[in-house]
Amino acid sequence: MSSVRGRMANLANSVCLKNSVSLWSPLQSPAAHRSSSIGFRTFRRSYVVSSSSFSNENREFVIVGGGNAAGYAARTFVEHGMADGRLSIVSKEAHAPYERPALTKGYLFPLDKKPARLPGFHTCVGSGGERQTPDWYKENGIEMFYEDPVSNIDIEKQTLTTNSGKLLKYGSLIVATGCTASRLPEKIGGNLPGVHYIRDVADADALISSLEKARKVVVVGGGYIGMEVAAAAIGWNLDTTIVFPDNHLLQRLFTPSLAQRYEEFYQQNGVKFLKGASIKNLEAGVDGRVTYVKLDDGSTIEADTVIIGIGAKPAVSPFEGAGLDSSVGGIQVDGLFRTRVPGIFAVGDVAAFPLKMYNRIARVEHVDHARRSAQHCVKALLSAQTDIYDYLPSFYSRVFEYEGSPRKIWWQFFGDNVGETIEIGNFDPKIATFWIDSGKLKGVLLESGSPEEFQLLPKLARSQPIVDKAKLQNAASVEEALEIAGSSL
Predict the structure, then answer these.
(1) How do residues 331-374 score in pLDDT, each as one tens digit?
(2) For a Cys-Cys bond, which of 146, 209, 346, 440 suits 351, CB 3.0-4.6 Å?
(3) Are residues 137 and 199 in the same domain?
(4) 317, 351 in Cβ contact below 8 A?
């Protein structure tokens, strides 16, 4: 066992020296990088602390965070036979890791429309894996600390302190803290009763309590959260308005014409839009609850429930010492998710990693990346794997999936949304958008495709084939367009 741990220690320390200001460069070989790193075991022996002072029995590996990334990392430890008696997970949540997208895609449905509920969506059911309930962690010897977030880290002593005062020891640490919801300032009503943010089950439960009594709902934000929450509110038959400052829905991805198709569908289902609008403040009634949303132009919208979906921020505190990326936020890591501090890794939403295929640093807030980055990191930590993470960006959404909905909407996007676009189809029954740059197919989005069609998308986006643009533009249907694109592979 000592030789195995020694090998893992060397792998864990394949990063730059502690005081280095730069990440490992893809131009260096992993072997060359390892030869210049500090010995992890020596680093640990410099500090002798009584084992009785630590709250965790399992100290070899510690994961901080209780979301998707933590759940998939735990499964990978189990698959390698390295979890039992070795792994601890520290979470601010009261629940074992779960598939977070379910909160806005299914959890918010009214009771008569079969909403998602735990334990139904614990990881790793989202990728077809085993449902990891709290008992699963016990059975696999994984030590869980619930509702006790980490408040401080001592990098020198390799210890963590939690909010309750627990002192935890780690050999290798994986930061999987994800993101926190961006909030409106308290001075403009961001914390009023009836104002909701959604990142975890507790948030979702509080929102459901409001929706049960609501009449008029205002959703602030025209991105993923805004679109998914508004669709759920319609399932409750509530007067629903989406307010956002952009010109159209999901402006970071959708083209204007594509967004128009979705906006028309939402309007047909009763959703109202206020585009190009900004919030001045939220106003409370005599009972202290939110009553109105006041816009910058002085107009007001009546609301008894307001959901804020204006983005998220990486939860980097208290791990700033591991190195932050100033361009995209998050904790800097290399292609094996190693930070600049020996023995510390970061995965999922919080990691600023090299996006290999596009040669840029990125931070991706997506469940697929949370899963894959966690698995890649743990495999690199526990084995001789030195393959650099090569992620293909992908995004998706599912809305109006409750019982009785006139139509369920599900789209997927793969690749990069750069260059000019070609749109094929009329949205009913399906539509596809292709992004082409310098003759290469860079990205593709498909709405309401078949399983076989969806499987083609990542192949196209990763291969980036040269396509016949004129032929694609003249395609009579989505099926024909995908066939043309597929023949270019």
Answers:
(1) 999 999 999 999 999 999 999 999 999 999 999 999 999 999 99
(2) 346
(3) no
(4) no
